[in-house]
Amino acid sequence: MNSDPFYTPTDIANKLVGYSTQETPRCVADFCAGRGELLRVARQRWPQAMLVGLELNKANIATLRANAIAQTVIHCDFLHPCVRHIRVLKALQGRVSVALLNPPFSHRGGTKCTVSVGDKQLTCSPAMEFVLRAFEFLSRDGEIVAILPAGCLRTEKDELAWRYLRTHAQTSVLGSNGHRTFQDCVVHTLLVRIRKCSGQPAEPAKVTRCQQRTDAESVELFRGKIPMYTVGSRKGRAYFVHTTELKNGAVTPVRKISVSEFGISGPLVLVSRVGQPSIGKLAIYSGTEKVVLSDCVLALRCKSLSAAKKLHVHLLKSWKQLRASYGGTGAPFLTVRTLSTFLQNRGYAVRAFSASEKCRHKLVRAIEAVSAGSGAGTNGISRK
Hints:
Layout: H1 10-18, E1 27-30, H2 37-45, E2 50-55, H3 58-66, E3 72-75, H4 87-92, E4 96-101, E5 113-117, E6 120-124, H5 126-135, E7 138-149, H6 159-168, E8 169-177, E9 189-196, E10 218-223, E11 238-241, E12 246-247, E13 250-251, E14 256-257, E15 263-264, E16 268-272, E17 283-285, E18 291-293, E19 297-301, H7 305-317, H8 319-324, H9 336-344, E20 349-352, H10 357-372
Parallel strand pairs: 1-2, 1-4, 2-3, 4-7, 10-20, 11-18
Antiparallel strand pairs: 5-6, 7-9, 8-9, 10-19, 11-14, 12-13, 15-18, 16-17, 16-19
């Protein structure tokens, strides 16, 4: 697999190893060992433990073997399907006391992976694929201590993976790292511990449906569909709204593009989905003419302009809490599910809207999942 190598700094390695609850582990493994910093610190803490390092890069393999960092060094791709047939790794399954991980996660293009866990097929990010595969190697009371991208705890892509882990393990967020922790990389990461539960799997926490007022305001949630990199080739008649057109609570689009199937008319409350959260980007569009939204914008369509103004004021008053709902490894983002939860917890009835039936069904599934598990300016378009 292709990835950008960002090796673990010594201070982070010390912190990560220090978070392990194991006092005398028999086997400690790093399934993406890099240059071996995590294993080197592990040897200092647990000199009696058997250390195992897996690595794909040949230069790093040479370094690991030359420095005798681990008793066992294996040259392989941990995510390759054939890795399970390697004799040494087959012998390790169910015997690893501590798995130390700083998995690759700087993949471009929203890479998705499919992992077989028991009788389940789970879709997740590359970082969480490392975690799930490492989980299979843990002993009865073993644990994973990992550096993970902050976004994987919030993104819907990894929701099923976390649901599985929380059913079979105790998961804890131990701390966070600054954006400049890794050289030549601006990224927000977390330190996470996943401790396997002994005996029967833990029962998933029971959730109750959010109690919704009988007089609840109804809003339709729509996610913009047009990627910014396609806009330049779309000359047409429909006004286009990106986050740059959300200013001081108003909408001021100045360009038109050629697309009609993703248009939506007001009254709308528009929210920036991606980028640095700003209260000024909570904007009202009161026009009746359809606008086309970029995929960086979320829209809440209300029944009336007065209802839109009321919702806008509510979001402004709750801005501190809404801002905290943004997460992510790089640029902060707000998911459909997070916004749905935020609104439903405040008594709003959230429904999906999309001119495209395929997109609508996807939104419906996201919003229904939330329902099952949760209990400034007022201008329209000002043309220039």
